[in-house]
Amino acid sequence: MKRFAALIDRLIYGRSRNTGLALIVDYLKHTPDPDRGWAVAAGAESLAFPAVKAGTVRALLASRVDEQLFRLSRHFVGDTAETAALLWPEPDRELDWTRFPERSRGARSSEARTSDVAASTSLGRAPRLRSGNRMGWEGPPSFLSVTEAVDALSVATRSDAPAILASLLDRLDADGRYALLKLALGGMRVGVSARLAKQAFAQAFAVPVDDVEELWHAIPPPYAPLFAWGEGRAPRPDLADVAFFRPFMLAHPLEDRALEGEAIDFDSFAAEWKWDGIRVQIVHGGGETRLYSRGGEEISAAFPELVAAFDQDAVIDGELLVRGEVQGGEAASFNALQQRLGRKTVSKKMLADYPAFVRVYDLLGVDGNDLRGLPWSERRRQLEAFVPRLADSHFDLSQVIEARDFDHLAQLRAGARDAAIEGVMLKRRDAPYVAGRRAGLWYKWKRDPLVADCVMMYAQRGNGRRASFYSDYTFGCWNDAGELLPVGKAYSGFTDEELKWLDKFVRDNTVDRFGPVREVEKTLVLEVAFDSIHASKRHKSGLAMRFPRIARIRRDKPAEEADRIATLRGMVT
Question: Does the active-site annotation cover 274?
Answer without folding.
Answer: yes
